[in-house]
Structures are given as C-alpha cells and as structure tokens.
# Entry
Amino acid sequence: MPQDSEVTQPRFDLVVRNGTIVTPGSREQADIGIADGRIAQLGGPMTGSAEIDAGGLLVLPGGIDAHVHLVCAGLAAALAAEYPDEPGWVDDFWTGSLAAIGGGITTVGNMTFAMPGETMTAAIARDMAGARAEAAVDWFLHPVLTGVSDAERAEVGELAASGHTSVKVFLSNPAFAAGTPGLAEVIAAAGRAGSITLVHCEDAGMLERTGRELIESGQGAIQFFPDARTVDAEVTAVDAAIGLAADTGSAVYIVHLSSGAALDRCRQARVAGLPVYVETRPLYLHLTRSRFAEPDAAKYVGAPPLREQADRDDLWRGLAAGDVDTLCSDHAPWTLKLKLDPALDVVSARQGVADLETLMPMLFSEGVVTGRISLDQFVELTSARAARLFGLHPRKGVIAAGADADLALWDPDQRRVIDGAAMASRADYSVYDGWTVQGWPRFVLRRGQPVLADGQVTASPGQGQWVRRDRAPGPGVSPGA
# Structure
C-alpha cells in the first residue's frame, strides 16, 4: 500500500524536476508543479502525470521578444496586391514561432502595420486573425501609428482599452518627423490611456539629405550604408523622443538603440526622472560597421546601421549597468538573395535580419559566459523587464505560482555552430554563420506544454494565444529599476 506521504502529495499535469530556477535576485534548486498551463507549486512534495528531468539545467522564464516583424497570410496577400514588384519579410507567425521556440522564446510582440487607407484597428484585427491561425507562441501586437488627427488620438485610447497598450511611431518617416503638428497630442493621449509609445529614432530630414548626397557624390553603394544613417541622426531623434516624454509625461521606449552617444542621452533623461526606456538589439552587441567592408555587406543592413567598436563597448556596459532595459531581435527576415540584390543602394537597401532563434543563445554565450553580464541580468533583459514594461506581468516573465508555465530549460554548456540555412526562419542565412555559441535551451514549455525537446519542436500552428495587456509600463516600473 502507498505510504501516507505519497497519498497526500499533490498531483499535477507536469512536474519539472531537479532544475535550478533562476529569477532576478533568486536562484534555487526546486521542483515545479504545473497545472492547467500555470505554475501551481514551487518546491515541496509533488507528483505529476508527466515529468521532465531538468538536472544540470537552468530553469529560466520563457523569453519575451517584444519587437518582431512577422507577416501573417492576410497581410502578405494585401502587400502582394498593393506592391506586386516589392518582396516582403519572409517569416509568418508559424515560422517565426519555430524560430522563437528554438531559441527559448515563448512570447513575441509583433509590429502591426496598416495598409494604405486602413485603420490601426482594422490592421490589429487582421493580425489577430492571422496569429490565431498560425502562431505557436503567445503574442501581443503593437499598432503602428497611421496619423496624428483626432481620429488617431481616439483610436489609440480605444485600442488600449481593448488590451493593446502600446503604439509605434517612426521619427524616420517624414509624416511623423519630430515637430509634426499633432504628434505630441497623440503621444499624450497614449499615455493617458495607459499605453507606452515605441519610437524609432532616426531623424527623417537628416536621413533624406545624407542619402541623397551620398548617391549624388557616387557613394551610393551598400558599403556606405552607415554613412547614410549617422549617429547624429539617431541622437537628434532620441533628443526629440526625450522631449516628447518631457512635454507629455507619457512613457517612451526607444527601440533598437545603437550608439553610445544616444545611450548617454537616455541615461541623462532617466537620471532626470523622465519615463524613457531603452531597447537594443543583438546586431549592435556582436557586430561593428567593419562588416560593411566585406563583399556581401548588404546582409548586415539594419536601421540604425552597425556602429563602431566603441559603441559596441558602450552598449555592453549599458546592459551591465541597467541603462538598457531589454534586448529584442527586431526580427525582420529576408533571404540572402533578396538582401544582396545588386539593384539596391544606400537608400533602398532592405533593412533587417533574422535574429529570433539566436537572440538568447548569443546573449548567454557572449554575455553570461564571458562575464559581461550576470545570469540575473540575462533574465531581466530577455523576459522579466519586458513583461513589466508591456503590461504582461505577473502572467509572463516570472517563475512564480499563478504565472503561465513558460519555461526555458537551459543547458549552459551545450555548444553549437550557427548555420542559418539549417535554422527555422525562412531566411536562409544568419549574420552569425560560423560562430560557436555556448548555451541553448534543451526543453521549452509554453503554458506548460512542451514545445521543444532536445532540439525537436513539438508545437503546432494555432496553439499560441493572444495576451491581453494591462497598463504599460506596469505599476512601479521606473527607468532602470
């Protein structure tokens, strides 16, 4: 007969045994009981209908990549009809999910663009439908601002009330350049509604002028791309974004910050108490503009472009000091053939690279393993901070009773050589091809369901869920906290 201790042990759908649970400020070896997709118990006696032995593994919150560009079937069709001669990014919510899962990411935040004449609300509805059919990870959406009139101000508030508590604006777009009448009013309305404003910081006027001058002077080749989008253009736009935060009191989130000078501006704003948050992306931590001397330089094109080694060093120091809040991929994948199209120049170059699958492993290998950042900081940068900033906490980004059982069971010693052609994204290359990377997920759970086991993805399209968000930034989230 069973012993009394066995009779009284709680039984769960799944138990993760023997792993080392890592959350910011805490590290302990304990079992995790999972029921109905959520963490039900940490430590203590338990049994499970199924069990995973996580001995020797780190148990991390599933990654949250709050900045991706995935194109659902509905948008792909609309783009093909509107722009028949212009190819688009090659990953949908399904292949993007596969890439995310392979790299330990369980939730993504997708940029949702409206087609000409389409409202933000209609665009959100289209991406919601596409993600429901395609996604295997959980998702949330960032509507991209379509205008600065009374209609858009009202729409931002209505979307926030529906759980979409963010809006994206491109200061690189002349229609939304710094100083555009009505722009501050829209951002103020977003703040009142509980939304955070994501800002692409490159000055539109400066980009137009430098691009035109380079082409006119015979320096229009892709190798001059960093000269077309200078640090000064980024800093000018960052100053404008900080000014909008100061004028409106609304939170702004600087996406893919690339330079030490821009980071210093944000650091000063945060010291002054302004609600300014900072994201960077892997490109700027691992590569420099020296790559543009290579024959296939176009494969490294992103906006802002790769910077100097000093900027790379400044960003690593910023991660360690807490001056950078999140690391996100800005996953915007193209095939190598599309990137290397010889007809492209410094103005028309196709921006973006595939980085969903490599974001967390590269940061672990180049950051934690080398001692540049701590394991706690790794968790903050890849999940915990994004959850708090974007209104996902306490459901996401934490290993605690009641939270979604989104877990990456991480092998800190596993080594792989990057081969983009063999990865899940439809992009057939990686900017890190040939790099040896230490630290990969061995198992990944999304809401308690194993979706990766020893390198094999077991998820299916449509299993992901939309995450309704609360006010952003979440309560008590101060810059640099």
About this structure: Residues 231-248 form the longest helix (18 residues). Residues 1-6 have pLDDT under 50 and may be disordered. The radius of gyration is 22 Å. The chain is about 35% helix and 20% strand.
